[in-house]
Amino acid sequence: MTAQPDNGASTWANTWFAQASARVGAAPLGPKAEQIGRVETVGDGIALISGLPDIRLDELLRFDKGSFGFAQMLEPDRIGCVMLDDVDAIEAGDAVRGTGDVVRVPVGPALLGRIVDPLGRPLDGKGPIVATRLEPIERPAPAIIDRDLVVQPVQTGLVVIDTLFALGRGQRELIIGDRVTGKTTIAIDTIISQKTSDIICVYVAVGQKTSSVRRAIDAILAGGAPERCIIVVAGAASSPGLQWIAPFAGFTMAEYFRDAGQHALIVIDDLSKHAATHREIALLTRQSPGREAYPGDVFYVHARLLERAAKLSKDKGGGSLTALPIAETDAGNLSAYIPTNLISITDGQIVLDTKLFHEGQKPAVNVGISVSRVGGKTQAPALREAAETLRLDYAQFLEMEAFTRFGGLPDARVRDQLIRGARIRAILNQPQHAPLRLADEVALILAAQAGLLDALPLPLIIAFRLGLRDALARGAADTVRMVEQTGTLDAAQRQALHDTLKHYAQTLVPGPAPVTAGEP
Questions:
Q1: Which of 329, 333, 332, 341 is nearest to 303 (CA)?
Q2: Statement: 384-508 belongs to CATH 3.40.1480.10
Q3: Rounded distance, CA 318 to CA 260, Å?
Q4: 321, pLDDT greater than 70
Q5: Residue 431 class from Cβ within 10 Å (0-12 exposed, 13-18 middle, 19+ buried)?
Q6: pLDDT digit string (tens) for 217-226?
Q7: What is the DSSP letter of 430?
Q8: Contact between 102 and 82 (Cβ < 8 Å)
Q9: 34 and 97 in contact (C-beta within 8 Å)?
Q10: How many CA atoms, within 13 angstroms, populate the side-chain half-sphere of residue 211?
């Protein structure tokens, strides 16, 4: 990422001035009164300003040296301003003026395929961005009457999520877990999976290391459709102000497409760091600390943010905005302040387990405590029918596996269930940045549920998945086409798919050798 602060800043400022003038109209001729404030102190991304008694909360402030900030603390004699630019250029005594407006960001198709900061300034070295217009970062969430039912799926390409915790367009699903458990990978795989869909993706990095952001961008460029993505970066080195507005700016950019009748997906990576930034700003501006030193309004901040994700009614264009916020836990503590807040705000959570991750089960989704409160309502009918009993079968397998570890040989029926369950776990294991088509997911689940994989040793399950697409192309092309286009599967096509999978699995069976020793 090659930052271009000068051109980007001047473009954003010039656009803001032009649109602000159009909103206000031509200034009247003759003298006019103007309030000019002065910087008292500046540091840690906060400037304390005096001499502007009429400034309103969240109003955009302009410094004479070209920097911007917004009012976060209002006291009778001074203002606490959160800086949106580097504070090194600001000194005590500098003049400050109110703009009468709030922070706005550029929106429109010109942002697609670009890497920008939260103010829409380019970071990719591809020149200035000519936006459709500027919109405020704080916008009201759609009213209940303006929303519609969440019934259309968002295919993540991850078998464990699409089959057990299906996502819908307009849903808010939290991805939560300890650090280095694959949270960002799930979000990036979901973005990559939209390569063949009509969903526009917005990825917002908040407080992330440059190397982590670079890996995410490289993955999207290599496997996704970057020309239909917007990447908003407020890295760890960015000012606290930019990190704070980043999720709000990303939502505003995504809402442009939702309000135009299109479908958008936004990933916030992550809200734990955003909450820490909010706490930092609150403490510096002398707001009262509460639980875990967070200010009491942190719940409201995230609630008003995530409520903006919605499926709009047909009268409002029928567009949708799906949110995948990410949160980090410490030692799996889901009862901490920020995790409990976000769990109560969202429509479900995908919980990642450190133990599963280190055991090699990736995505490391804990199926026992993960949930989607929309779930099967949004699944494609073919996948819903195939995975109808999958969660129950898998849960029973995990219980039996834990029980049989205490010793003793299970009977034949239990042994068969253990063998079947081990195959289900194997197909839920998936390499990163390799999302599957809907047809491939349906075929995998059908093969496992029908017992077609029971005769395969566990190491050959990987080979089965790798060759599945070619096998379906040879023997069930019509079925694949039906599933991909309609999401349905009639009885005849289901039988044809079963026959193709059975023949393909038989070609991989190494012979009449028994199940390998040590395997359930």
A1: 341
A2: no
A3: 9
A4: yes
A5: exposed
A6: 999 999 999 9
A7: -
A8: no
A9: yes
A10: 0
Q: 3-state class of 65 per DSSP?
A: coil
pLDDT over 90, % of the chain = 71
What type of residue is 294? Y
* Residue in 373, 391, 415, 494 annotated catalytic: 373
- 451 φ/ψ angles, rounded to the nearest 5 degrees: 80, 15
The CATH number of 106-378 is 3.40.50.300
Angle separating helix axes 390-404 and 412-428, nearest 10 degrees: 120
Task: Give the start-to-end residue ranges of the domains of the chain.
Answer: 34-101, 106-378, 384-508
**Which structure tokens are listed for 118?**
């939260």
| Alpha carbons 414 and 409: distance in angstroms, whole number | 9
Amino acid, res. 193: S
CB 243 within 8 Å of CB 278 = no
Q: How many Å apart are CA 122 and CA 114, to the nearest integer? A: 7
Domain 34-101 belongs in CATH node 2.40.30.20: yes
Q: What single-letter amino acid sits at 298?
A: V
Closest CA to 88 of 113, 120, 60, 66: 66
Q: Which residues contact 354 (CB under 8 A, 6 or more apart)?
A: 177, 178, 181, 332, 364
Placement of tokens 């390409």 in the chain: 157
Dist. CA 263–CA 30, nearest whole Å: 49
**Does the active-site annotation cover 413?**
no
The two three-digit tokens of residue 223, written as one number: 């496997």
- Digit-coded pLDDT (tens) for 349-390: 999 999 999 999 999 999 989 999 887 788 999 999 999 889
